Amino acid sequence: MAALFTGKVLTGNRERDEVETERELGRALENKVLLLYFGSGQCPRCREFSPILKDFFVRLTDEFYVERASQLVLVYVSRDETEEQQSAFLRSMPKRWLAVPFGDAFKRELELRFAVSEVPAVVVLKPNGEVIVGNAVEEIRRMGPACFRNWQEAAELVDRNFLLAEDFDEWSRRSITDPIRRLKYKLDKKTEEKDKGRKKEGEESP
Questions:
Q1: Of 87 and 170, which is predicted with more confidence?
Q2: Cβ atoms of 139 and 151 closer than 8 Å
Q3: Quick one: 105 and 193 in the same domain?
Q4: What is this structure's pTM?
Q5: Do 114 and 190 sit in the same domain of this protein?
Q6: So which residues are the signal peptide here (predicted)?
Q7: What is the DSSP string of 150-186?
């Protein structure tokens, strides 16, 4: 997913810290479903939808609601008229949101790439940048957090439950394919052991 943001910068919500694509951004987006939220704090439809999206995101990522945060990241792509308006809007949203900096021409690139003509719009992407849902606004309204399971399956995410405890320390430094290779190796090994067991039983039977 970081490839989508190559050479670009995102900012942390309510912080001046920039998230560099090469390392921090790569870790932030790796093995997650990405939501691109195109909106504006001044748009009446966005003002009505944004609290719904906020609740949706919080219920999937906040430890008050879930034991383990869902593999989900959101980037706000604003149509706000001023930087102050964008900042004011973001202050009312979850801290974990990221944002394209105000005035960055990359916002227009994203609008064109994902054919966003009206706001609010929520584009749902796989970790590799493929589109899962072109605009999930109505789906989020209708289904709430339940729709994340469908996206998770479509994205074929590596469930972190499969990772060994010691893997968590190294997770940020490893390739997305490493857990898949380890899991495949374990499955192949189990299959091989089963086959050996069946073969041995066949040899022992008269």
A1: 87
A2: no
A3: no
A4: 0.74
A5: no
A6: none
A7: HHHHHHT---GGGS-TTHHHHGGGS-THHHHHHHHHH
Q: Has residue 21 got a pLDDT over 50?
A: no
The CATH number of whichever domain residue 43 belongs to comes to 3.40.30.10
Number of domains in the chain: 2
Q: Are residues 45 and 134 in the same domain?
A: yes
Structural domain containing residue 195: 175-203
**Coil/strand/helix, residue 148:** helix
What is the per-residue pLDDT across 90-140, written as a single tens digit (0 to 9) for each? 999 999 999 999 999 999 999 999 999 999 999 999 988 899 999 999 999
Nearest alpha carbon to residue 95 among 12, 173, 185: 12
Same-domain check for residues 72 and 42: yes
Residue pLDDT, tens place only, 29-60:
788 999 999 999 999 999 999 999 999 999 99
Give the whole-angstrom CA distance, residue 109 versus residue 126.
19
Strand 33-39 versus strand 18-20 pairing type: unpaired
pLDDT of residue 131: 96
* Long-range contacts of residues 109-115, Cβ cutoff 8 Å, at least 24 apart: 110/36, 110/38, 110/77, 111/38, 111/77, 114/36
Taking residue 66's Cβ as centre, other Cβ atoms within 10 Å add up to 13
User: Based on the domain organization, do 103 and 155 belong to the same domain?
Assistant: yes
Closest CA to 39 of 135, 93, 118: 118
